[in-house]
Amino acid sequence: MPHPEHRPSPSALSAWRVVSLASALACTLACALALSPSAEAAQAVKPAKAPNVAAEALARASRGPLQPVGMVEGIREYRLPNGLQVLLNPDDSKPTTTVNMTYRVGSRHESYGETGMAHLLEHLMFKGSPRHPQVWAEFNKRGFSANGSTWYDRTNYFASFAANEDNLKWYLQWQADAMVNSFIARKDLDSEMTVVRNEMEMGENDPGRVLMEKTLSAMYQWHNYGKSTIGARTDVEGVDISRLQAFYKRHYQPDNATLIISGKFDAAKALTWVQQAFAAVPKPQRVLPPLYTLDPVQDGERSVTLRRVGGTPLLFAGYHVMPGAHPDYAAVSLLTTILGDSPSGRLHKQLVDKQLAASVFSFSEGLADPGFILLGAQLGAQQDADAASKALLAAGESFAQQPVTAEELARARAKWLKDWDAGFADPQHVGVALSESVAQGDWRLYFLMRDRVKAIQLADVQRVAQRYFVTANRTLAQYVPTPQPVRAPAPQRVDVATELKGFQGQAAQAQAEVFEATPANIDARTQRFALPSGMKVALLPKTTRGQAVKATLTLRFGTAESLAGWGEVPSALAALLDKGTARLSRQQVQDRLDALQSDVAFSAGPGQLNVALSSRREHLPELIALVSDLLQQPSLPADVLEEVRSQALAGIEAQRKEPEAVLAEAMSRHGDPYPLGDVRHARSFDETVADWQAVKAERVKDFHQRFVSAANAQFSAVGDFDAAAVRAALTQGLGAWRKPEASAEPFARIPDPLVPVPAVRLVLSTPDKQNATMSVQQALPLSDRDADYPALMLANHLLGGGGDSRLWNRIRERDGLSYSVYSSIQWHPQEAHSAWAATAIFAPQNRDKVETAFREEIERALKQGFTQAEFESGKRGLLSFRRLGRAQDARLAAGWVSNLYLDRDFAVSARVDAQLEALTLAQVNAALRRHLQPAQFVFGFAGDFK
Fold this sequence. Notes:
The chain is 42% helix and 16% strand. By secondary structure, the chain is an alpha+beta fold. Strands 1-6-7-5-8-4-3-2 form an eight-stranded mixed β-sheet, sandwiched between helices. Strands 14-15-19-16-18-17 form a six-stranded mixed β-sheet, sandwiched between helices. α11 crosses α14.
């Protein structure tokens, strides 16, 4: 969504927000799928019978040319006679293209016994069609970063790739073919149903997701918004193939779809290819029935209680609101920030500041029909849930007694518009975000919502808050009868055409330059220099859409000896750096960031402090000045340290029973050679808790004074900025920042030699968890400078890192045992100590099957090697993924920071690309056999194994 939302932690809600086919593999661009075509023609969607004369005439009429409809702020709309809506958003500032096909069908359109059908169909679409039987293998070969997602009102399929006419043309052809010719076969359903069920089991492990599911189920008595998009387990397991095929034929039609092309492409050619691919798809004769179910106005508070093992207390308070297209939804979106922002939000002040909760959040959903807003609080294990729930409701329903202030509205508006501008500056984001406005009723709502936020008055925000945040409209974990309930307005739909009558968009933004993200061009365009403080700098200025710029700063300090015994002090320092300076309060810092339309994030690692910056051309020098002040003159308030400590302890407590976290703790500690206090020591949950409890404000200040400076720092900025102004700002803010020689702590890279650990098979119990996990690890005596680096990188891509990998095809695609299975290599840039790892999630009862399949595929790869076809396809895909990675400004800035530290440039990347191009199949197979040693594997399993 384009508006800012304050949500629970990803562990609580990310799985609920968008049920995505490949989201579990987002850790790597190479984690795509490869599927086998269905050969069961009798069980697939059968071709339509020969049409009658009238139908033939209708089909011929539908094959006319694309007709222009209109344009808003550079986005042009076209229509085919068959009903297909086409949106073009050209932007040459990045060498990537994003194509998004949105169907106006989601879980809202499912009937009794069909819950989860829209999402299941999303999975099956990737199983192919007669003309495109190997969809994911083709994605991988072409280097696509592709995905699909299902939500209440829509399903969408999108892919991003390095700009290439053949890629764009192929993807359009596949989308046109998939629209009406996908297999949707019984064979594929049988295997994919178990994968979806495993996805469901993954969500069942998360108390936050389950609590949200129960909350919405209680809020909506009749409407399908009360049903989880992933569906009921029995519906998913028992779905009838004929009903699924009928659902596909009914909704996957051109008059129910919007095709969005965004990024770098030739518009005239794209329109020709759209015409060629889609015009032949006939306009359907069926008429989609209107949906008319609405819940009555809620007439009393409702409650839900969930009891599960593990985690920490979590509270939700849900309220019904109007549809996303309604004029009043702008007020709801701003109220989300007014309530849930930190530290200015009302929830933060009433719960976190008073130590009644570890953290708070709020978010809203603007849907086609009346949606909802949720307020929440995450509690520490020792905090009083009753007191917290009372404070949560008091803050949420405080508007009658404490009206919205002008300051609250101004702050929320600034934050909302900053996030909208940042999103609109990214063509990939726009290409996918428009799906939500399409689902609400019209893509132009994307811009109308912005205009409404700009124009809304304080009285309107107060009116909406006072009408909807009432006791009778609330769902919480308790029930209290109310003699005289005050009810919210009755739900009603919106006439979108009326709302958009007379709407005029703003002027389109200027087009950015065409930037070729080749290693040679990156090096040629980058300005490199050093400051008197010792900080190394790399600046890559180029025009971008919205004048966006990304920057990264890393400060390095200390030695293995001097950093020993500090525990969580460096993490506490990172968390406190943006909480105020000697001259700015915490809120003033946040307000300054909003005014600069910028974001800053601090994080700590062993011997380093990292800063991620996001800004715009005119604001980057001022942002650098602000960050310089935060780094050198932080206030490090003791009261906020208690807040940070509480949040950290609550987070640790929430992970103690989670299979992934429990297994990660055990495997990191297996064979750990370092003593407690060493920065390389693998701490237990209890040791981490003890370190957080030991943090004192004085120690944080002492650490900052002793270690932190720009003497061993690296900075990089990539995007639209004035290089001279940025250099001046860096010189002014950080150019002289180093410790006096007499008191300066020496800096030396922390040694990280390979320490062999014995092979072992760990099995850990995590009761009441319906999803289990497997992890396999092996240390490699290699660095990324080793001669085998390219060959082993490609070998792992074929084994488990790429979309057409052996592990994925066997464990997910053939056996249907896992939603997510992959392998990866963490390459060390300096020492011969890299790490190969593989992981899979699965139902606990399938542990033996998963382990057997994994071992068999490893043995087969080592014994038989990869085929020439696998090798050629995998090499093309890996090289495409590397090119795509260099086209992302934030990743490019981080890459320059690493290169500055290592005294490298992007010529290294070019050499690796050339080495990958020159590889032979024999070299790749030999590298795998030389380095992957099953006898050295450390196996780990965690789950509720009966």
